[in-house]
Structure formats: C-alpha cells, structure tokens
Design brief:
330 residues; two-stranded antiparallel ribbon; 15% strand; binds S-adenosylmethionine; methyltransferase; transferase; S-adenosyl-L-methionine; transmembrane
Length: 330
C-alpha cells in the first residue's frame, strides 16, 4: 500500500515537472525567430514557423491559431536542433523534406535542387503553349481547349525534360496534362530516386524517369535507346558560374545541380549541339524551353543562333520582369 502511495506521488511530481518545464508554441517561436534574426536570415519568422509546424506535425495555420499550446521538451529540443542546422546553411525545405512547387508538395532531400519559384515560370510557359493558363499569372495565348476530356485537347504531346532533379517540372506538367507522355532525364542516380519517389507519392502515371548524361542515351545508341519523339523539350540545367556558386544560401545544395561551367552555359551549349545533331535532320517542329539566369540572355541567344541558325527565339520574363526562360522553335 505504501509502495503504491509513493509510486502515485512520484508520477504526480514527474507530471508537474514535465508540465512546468514545457514551453508554449509562441515562446518557442520567439526563441527560434530571434536566433535566426541574429544570423541575419531574412525570412526568420516564417522559417521558424515552418520548422516548428514540421516538428509538431501541424499545418502552419494550426500552429499560429494555438500560440499557448504547450510543446514537450523533446519537441522543443528537436526544434532547436533544426534552427541550428538552418543557421549552418541547410534550407527549411531540406530540413522538413518538403517543398511546395506550383501548388504541389514535393519530397526533397540533399540530393536534389530545392524547386525554385522562378522555375514555375518554365512550367507556366509550357502550359501557356498548349492553352492551359497557369496559376502564377502568365496569360498564355489560348489556342487549345483546357478540358482534358475535350476530344480536341492535345492528346499526343510528347515532352522531354533534361535535368529533372526532384521531378517537380515533369510531374507538375503531367498532373495538368494527363494525356501527355513525358520522359524526364537526369545524370544523377540519387536525384532520380527522389523523382521516382515523388511520382509514387503523387500517383502520377504519365512520366518515365531515366538516367542519361544530357541526350547521350539517344545519341550513342545505334537505334534510339527509348523510342521517343518529343514535341516539347524543357531544361533547367545548372547555369551558375564558379563565382555565383560561392553564395552561402546554396552551399548545402548539390553542385551537380548548380554549376554550369565557366560562364554558366557549358551544359546548355552541349545540349544545343546534341539537339541539332539528333533532331534537326528530321525537320520536325519542336519547341524548346530553357530556364536561364537573366544575365545570360544575350549569351544564350548567341549560342542558339550559332547552333540552330533558323530557330525562332523568344525571351520570356519572370514576375520581376527579368528574362528567365528562352523559347526556341525549330
Ligand atoms: C538546376 S537543377 C534542376 C532540377 C529541377 N528540374 C528543377 O527545376 O528544380 C539541374 C539538374 O540537372 C541535372 N544535371 C546536371 N548535369 C546533367 C547532365 N549532364 N545531364 C543530365 N542532367 C544533368 C542535375 O543532377 C540536376 O538535377
């Protein structure tokens, strides 16, 4: 009996101790935000919220609606660990394994480039081309019906993406164009693993992911390795220079996804040569979309003119009115 009495008392004291040492969501957020501000992280408030929401398994709205909700010591110490890692340069997306792109949540990790909002412009342009006006604000020329059940909806479009990373571009297009066939390539096996995981999670069928160094798998085989005649080619290949690579905010992302050679355009130059070699002979109409750094618009235009002299070139702007995408019709 005495033993039971002691036992109950100890449990009670322990519960009181745990409860008293718990802190509220708002206090934890204050700590996290201040720590990130000290490190001069611009989005300190939002980042702290996203990291804590991830630890608690809450949506951000639920987190903000319950400022007095207590969090356990274990949760608080996990939150502090994430704040420290973020201070060391790991992005919120890498730490939470999740990044929203074009309204869809993608799984991400250290092996892939974290999808960027600029790349939504690339998607927007492809959707605009087929008459599907996107959600970011691009007003495409409506040339096709937007209802996939419409018999005249573009059914047999083949889309080839080079440098797919997390698969965010290919899978987003596949979601909005369920009747298109998409082949997405990457040279990185680890990135392809992430892309395939996203395909499974999102239950998207009309995309295939394959390993290839640019178009080498098409070029080197006596016959095309995968029978695929693209109508649209898309690429967001690495385009940063050595100097740009030194930017601390990208220090934890894979170099393979960022470095584009001396002037940042080596991979695009190689790709344009391969496109010329493989597709130009066939006299097929292909529309190519390339994402660029706005400072590269003059140089990429020159490269295109050198390799595909008859191509029609158009520069497309992002929301900041900077050249972001090159559209090439061959
Ligand atoms: C800038 S990331 C773009 C990823 C994704 N498409 C996006 O927009 O978020 C470039 C991708 O190209 C891949 N890559 C780099 N060199 C390549 C090559 N020679 N052939 C194919 N893919 C390559 C990288 O592994 C990386 O996943």
């Amino acid at each position: 009996m005495l033993k039971l009495y002691y036992y109950i008392n100890i449990c009670l004291l322990y519960t009181i101790y745990i409860f008293m040492s718990m802190i509220s969501i708002s206090k934890a957020l204050k700590y996290g935000e201040k720590d990130l501000i000290d490190k001069k992280i611009d989005s300190a408030k939002l980042d702290a919220e996203l990291l804590l929401a991830n630890i608690l398994g809450f949506k951000q709205e639920k987190l903000l609606a319950n400022p007095e909700h207590p969090i356990s010591n274990i949760q608080y110490s996990s939150f502090k660990k994430l704040i420290n890692k973020h201070k060391q340069g790991y992005s919120v997306a890498t730490l939470t394994s999740c990044k929203e792109f074009y309204g869809i949540d993608f799984y991400v990790n250290k092996d892939v480039l974290i999808p960027r909002p600029e790349t939504e412009i690339l998607v927007e342009n492809v959707l605009g081309l087929v008459g599907l006006v996107g959600v970011v604000g691009f007003i495409g020329k409506i040339t096709c019906p937007t209802d996939p059940n419409d018999p005249t909806y573009p059914t047999n479009l083949n889309i080839l993406e080079i440098g797919t990373g997390s698969g965010c571009v290919a899978l987003t297009l596949a979601k909005y164009m369920p009747k298109a066939k998409i082949l997405a390539l990457d040279v990185s096996k680890k990135a392809l693993k992430v892309a395939k995981k996203n395909k499974r999670r999102l239950k998207i069928e009309n995309v295939k992911f394959k390993k290839s160094d640019l178009l080498s798998e098409f070029k080197n085989s006596r016959y095309r390795r995968w029978v695929f005649e693209p109508d649209i080619i898309i690429a967001n290949l690495p385009y940063l220079t050595k100097k740009e690579l030194k930017e601390p905010s990208i220090s934890k992302e894979p170099k393979l996804a960022l470095y584009g050679g001396k002037e940042g355009l080596e991979l695009y130059e190689k790709l344009l040569k391969e496109i010329k070699q493989i597709y130009k002979k066939e006299n097929r109409n292909i529309v190519i979309f390339l994402e660029i750094n706005p400072s590269q618009s003059k140089k990429i235009t020159e490269l295109i003119k050198n390799n595909l002299p008859k191509a029609k070139i158009e520069l497309k702007k992002d929301l900041a009115q900077k050249d972001r995408v090159v559209k090439i019709e061959i």
